[in-house]
Amino acid sequence: MKTNFLILFAFLLFHVADSQELMTIGEVFDFEAGDEFQTRSTANYQPPNADRITVTGKHYSENHDTVFYNLYHDMYYTTVVWEGEPFLEYHFGIFNNTVFYTDLDSSLLLYDFGFSINQYFENSTQLCDSLINGCAYSWGPGFEDDYIIHDYGRGLGMTYEYHYSGMGGYELSKNTLFYYKKGIEICGTPDMTSVGTQFHSLQQELTVFPNPAGKNIFLKGYFDEADCTVLNAMGQPVMWKTLIMNDNSLDIDQLPAGLYFLLVQTNNNPIMLKFIKN
């Protein structure tokens, strides 16, 4: 299998030379002190989280082919607390680290071999028309392969990373850049969640009905889009769906009877709703 892959790799590497030219590593990882980037894990069933990164320093190696960045991270993640009325507990942390990128004048192909298998080029509407080089491909033994997507933006680094396990049948990772600030250029809405934030402000504005429920439940209230996760009485996620105003129902017919919780995440604060399945 390894020999066959190497032959395929060499074949594709020869032919991608005729395709649209990829950005260089230096063009993708081109940051300045003061640049800000915010990413979050958007995998199914993932409670609210964010990694808010600020570039605090930059220097090059002596021969100028490697760049080093000092980064400051202000991050948080959440867990569900089941004592009494369930709620989300927020965990905050800060740390500093240094990353580096080398072979700056080389094609992005040298950084990510996925471009030798498949590559695409686009301007991202979600990231203010930024140029994106991406690759999407299967990887594995040929039976229930994993599926991988990597997107890179000019001066933005990796903007999207997705890894689905073919053998396990679940998402291993799914990370998205949703906000950046480079100089005077700002794109997206920053996550301002901080210690002391109140997390139940929508409790009276959104409700789940009918309750008790039969085959379907509906999310009632005003929202543009809501990521909804159904959790059983043990706190285990059992289903997930993104709802919009014109499609606000969840089919729960296959769930066993019992007590469930609906974790709702909108652009505002997340809330936890309770319902009973008959």
List the helices and strands and how they pair.
Layout: H1 2-15, H2 25-28, E1 36-41, E2 49-60, E3 66-81, E4 87-102, H3 108-111, E5 120-124, E6 130-139, E7 146-153, E8 157-165, E9 170-182, E10 185-188, E11 207-209, E12 216-220, E13 225-232, E14 237-244, E15 249-251, E16 258-265, E17 271-277
Antiparallel strand pairs: 1-2, 1-9, 2-3, 3-4, 5-6, 6-7, 7-8, 8-9, 9-10, 11-12, 12-15, 13-14, 13-16, 16-17
Overall radius of gyration: 22 Å
- Which structural class best describes the helix and strand composition? mainly beta
- CATH A-level architecture of the largest domain: Beta Barrel
Do you know the CATH topology of the largest domain? YmcC-like fold
Question: Which term fits the overall shape?
Answer: globular
> Can you give the helix content as a percent range?
under 10%
Mean pLDDT: 84
User: What amount of the residues lies in strands?
Assistant: over 45%
Largest sheet: 10 strands, antiparallel
The poorly predicted ranges are 1-18, 198-204
The number of helical elements comes to: 3
Number of domains: 2
Distance N to C terminus: 51 Å
